Amino acid sequence: MDAMMMGAMSKDMMSMPDMADMDMAMMQECMDACSACEQACTICSMQMMSCAPACMNCADMCNTMMRAMMRMQGMTKPVMMSMLDACIAMCQMCMDACMEHADHSEICKMCAQSCKACMDACSKMRDAMMATA
Amino acid sequence: MDAMMMGAMSKDMMSMPDMADMDMAMMQECMDACSACEQACTICSMQMMSCAPACMNCADMCNTMMRAMMRMQGMTKPVMMSMLDACIAMCQMCMDACMEHADHSEICKMCAQSCKACMDACSKMRDAMMATA
Amino acid sequence: MDAMMMGAMSKDMMSMPDMADMDMAMMQECMDACSACEQACTICSMQMMSCAPACMNCADMCNTMMRAMMRMQGMTKPVMMSMLDACIAMCQMCMDACMEHADHSEICKMCAQSCKACMDACSKMRDAMMATA
Amino acid sequence: MDAMMMGAMSKDMMSMPDMADMDMAMMQECMDACSACEQACTICSMQMMSCAPACMNCADMCNTMMRAMMRMQGMTKPVMMSMLDACIAMCQMCMDACMEHADHSEICKMCAQSCKACMDACSKMRDAMMATA
Predict the structure, then answer these.
(1) Is residue D43, in this structure, part of any structural domain at all?
(2) CATH code of the domain containing D43
(3) B53 contacts in chain D (CB < 8 Å)
(4) Would you tell me how many other CB atoms lie within 10 Å of the CB of residue A85?
(5) B69 — contact with chain C (CB < 8 Å)?
(6) Which among D70, D107, D110 has the least Cβ separation from residue A39?
(7) C44-102 tens-digit pLDDT
(8) How buried is C23 (Cβ within 10 angstroms: 0-12 exposed, 13-18 middle, 19+ buried)?
(9) Which of A77, B75, C129, D35 is least surrounded by CB atoms within 10 angstroms?
(10) Does residue C18 fall inside a structural domain?
(11) Domain for residue A17, yes or no?
């Protein structure tokens, strides 16, 4: 995301009682990883390979996850952690499905990498929230 | 959802090894509850009350949940249960936020009811999946 | 959509200067047709036939269209008509793509019917808005 | 979007009869503008100012637009142009709504800029498609 927009959004978020201890750089990284994963999955699903249904589910979940991070006013830490768990599980499953074609399809390989990056970013967020919950 | 479409979809789903024991009537009920909750939350968010951010998050999560149930080819039971958990947590949170205005706003009251119905339908699905996992 | 929710939403909408002359029954019919079309297209895309990319585009457009009708506070008639045009064009294209398989696939046949119904409901809305623009 | 992913996607797209003459750099710019606009609008809507309903509509339309460009297999040029028209109209309306608060809100100012950038990128795409239609 745009750095200036992130800055303005962070200022708003810092004033929320539950969110003052949130690491904003980590959160931005996570939103960017969700956005990149939605895009990679959407493109990958167009190949109509066996991973396509997982890719479509993963694209929707990543978009929902990204938006939820932009709307922390409508979140609590426990709900956030539950959504991160779902997003991590979805990304893992999609990555596994894409890895089966990684040798034959450059797009699947890149999609699997995006899923891995999103999974890692969400796990990092989850661990940080857990530590301060 | 349309009964004939549900019938045609069920036939496809029954041929998936993991899904043969799925209760299709229960699943249809859950998809319909997700769809109704997305709609109620979208309308409720327009009131610009304090529940609006939760309503927006809940609308997106419910849509993603509904679509995932229509794309079980791209799902496993554990991922599905993780998403159901997230949807249940989100609906609960949104219901609580809307209940604070239920005395003043007819829309909030109805939105809270939709959230409750969606939460219950997802919990039922989750319990059934757990039992056969 | 739930009739009581529609009633509550209509009351809010009637107070908008631009929307007082909107036919709410027609609008509800259109939102329901968009919702049904999103669902049919999502299911149809799982067949991985040649219509799948059109179905995915159509599902997203119909969801966006439905939500926009629930958020008329963030709309003007000209923007609404432009979005209805896009939705009509998308539904027409998806219907054509599905009709090519209607003899072989019950799901494609039903999806084409949902696209047709959505196209017709959007056209009706568009004509009504044009008449009062 | 990631440059390597765009490269891989372009190769697929070039093989479509209708899309061989598409300017891929222009398209990537447009997808990125849609993605940035969805994010800005989602954040801006959290301010619960009068532009919020327009921002929510714009976020959904921009996401649908971006995805449609990633799924050109399910598009024709006329449908694409119709969707670009709708997206341009929506961005224009949202920009106008946000500009009313640009003096008071840094977020509204940035959101209006994102809407403008998306509007311009979509217009460029539309003109290019028109020229080759």
Answers:
(1) yes
(2) 1.20.1270
(3) 46
(4) 18
(5) no
(6) D70
(7) 999 999 999 999 999 999 999 999 999 999 999 999 999 999 999 999 999 999 999 99
(8) middle
(9) A77
(10) no
(11) no
In a domain, C107, yes or no: yes
Asked if C48 and A46 come within 8 Å (Cβ–Cβ), the reply is: no
Q: How far apart are CA B38 and CA C35, in angstroms?
A: 10
Yes or no: say if C42 and C59 are a contact pair by the CB < 8 Å rule: yes
What distance in Å separates the CA atoms of residue A30 and residue A127, rounded to the nearest whole number? 13
Residue with tokens 């419910």: B62
Which structural domain, as residue segments, surrounds residue D36? 24-132
Could you read off the pLDDT of D91-120 as tens digits, one per residue? 999 999 999 999 999 999 999 999 999 999
Answer whether B3 touches C (CB < 8 Å).
no
Q: Sort out which chain C residues have CB atoms less than 8 A from B42's CB and list them.
A: 67, 70-71
B123 interfaces chain A, CB cutoff of 8 Å: no
Phi-psi region of A48 (alpha: psi -120 to 50; beta: other; left: phi over 0): left
CATH number at residue B84: 1.20.1270.360
- The verdict on a CB contact (< 8 Å) between A48 and C45 is no
The residue with greater pLDDT, D54 or B14, is: D54
Our count of domains for chain B comes to 1
Q: For every residue of A23-88, which 3-state class applies, written as one string?
A: CHHHHHHHHHHHHHHHHHHHHHHCCCCCCHHHHHHHHHHHHHHHHHHHCHHHCCHHHHHHHHHHHH
Q: Treating both helix axes as pointing N-terminal to C-terminal, what angle do A3-14 and D106-132 enclose, rounded to 10 degrees? A: 140
